[in-house]
Every structure is written in structure tokens, then in C-alpha cells.
């Protein structure tokens, strides 16, 4: 009798715990949906809209259904005031939109949907002439859970830029920090100090992949958060080149292993199977 009662009591307690966990999860999801609707509403007021072409709209809807990421386009010029300064951009042409939107969708489909959800990437907004505080910039992440993406990106640079920015979302989602990571800093060569940040390195060749001890580009040396994002972009777009570098560079090899660990914690589907050729 006593054992039966105890089992029943444990079952009841377990059911209550599951119910409470479910309620907590539901509240969190409801809060996220409300935040998403608010963010989207603000962007719509600024002139962002789904692609006007029926073919591109179909691509956008498909990505939204499969991966939860909305693709939007700036339908007119806009200005934003953000902590780092004033951001402005223009409406891209239909040809620019068609060229970039399909490639962005194809690259995002490479990820497990769970990873993009965990990273907090809700939408990508295509625009032209993107500028921040008077400087041309190719993209801007984490603007109301959105990525502003300039359609000037082309060729092999486009996917590298996109995956670089996706990682910034994941990096922030991991612990709400991007510029501080003692574990990562400890992996650098002794005595190394990062530069003045990504905004201080605007040269056209800064992001070119190079054989630098512990780093994949000059841009990676500008800031801790850029180092991570550059390595991740190389993992996504130049795996063979990176594999050769890892065999020769112990520091880079340790960073690669660390980054893989962070990614799989954020989304288990980013484990070994994801990285197999």
C-alpha cells in the first residue's frame, strides 16, 4: 500500500513538473511570438515588405515554413538610429533582389531549423547602399532579430558574409555576450591582442582568407567576435582549405574544436553529422 502510494505521489509530482515546464515553455514561446510581431511591425512601418515577385515570394514562404526565417526587402529608402550611429539604405532593384534572395535562401537551408531558431535569426532584410555613420557596410546583424543585408554582395563573398553574420546571432544567443570570452581569448598565441574592432578594418582585402598563425583573415584579428565569425564562415564555405590549415596550425585547431562545442550546445543537430562532406 505504502509503495503504491509513493509511486502515485511521484507520478503526480512528475506530471506537475511536466505541466509546469510546458507552461513555462509556452509562456516563453508566446513572449517570443509577441516580440517577433512587434519587431516585424516596426520594420513594416519603415517600408520593409515581402518580395513583390510571386516567384520570390514563393521562395520566401518556403524558407519561412521550413526554417522559420522571413525574407523581406526594403521597398523604399530608410533611416535607423542605432547605438552605433545612424544607419541608412535604399531599395534594391528587382534584379538585385532576385539574384541575392535565392542565394540567401539556399544558404540558410543548409542549417538545421533548430539552429536558426536557437540563434534568434528571425528575418533577413535585403537593401542597397547600406551605410552606418557615413561608411559603406555590407551587412548589419541583430537589428530587431533581423539581418540587414546589402545586395551588393556577390560571388563567393556572398555566402561567406551571410554565414559570418549568422554566427553573430548564434554568438549572442549563447550567453548574451559577443565581445568578452575568456575561454576563447586563452586559445590565442601568447601576448596577442585584438585590434580596435571590425569597424576599424574596412579595407577590401581584410576579409580575404590567409594563412596567419591562429587566424583565417586579417579581419579575424580585429576583434574577438570577428575572429569567431570568420572561422565559422570558413567552416561553412571553405572546408577543404580550412582542413589543411587545421593540420598545420595548433591554435586554429583548438579554436575550431572550441567553436564546434559551442555550436552543438546551442543545437545538437550541429554535431559531427552536420559537418561531414
Describe the structure.
Helix content is 54%, strand content 14%. The relative contact order is 0.09. Helix 3 packs across helix 5. The chain has 3 domains: 1-36; 47-155, no CATH class; 182-275, no CATH class. By secondary structure, it is of the alpha+beta class. Strands 1, 2, 3, 4, 5, 6, 7 and 8 form an 8-stranded mixed beta sheet that branches. The model is unreliable at 1-25 (pLDDT under 50). The longest helix is centred in the first third of the chain and has 45 residues, at 2-46. The radius of gyration is 21 Å and the shape is globular.
- The class by helix and strand makeup works out as alpha+beta
* Uncertain parts: 1-25
What is the strand tally? Answer: 8
Radius of gyration: 21 Å
- Sheet with the most strands? 8 strands, mixed
* Count of runs of 4 or more consecutive helical residues: 10
Bin the strand percentage: 5-15%
Number of domains: 3
End-to-end separation: 58 Å
Order of helices and strands: HEHEEEHHEEEEHHHHHH
What global shape is seen? globular
Mean pLDDT: 86
Estimate percent helicity: 40-55%
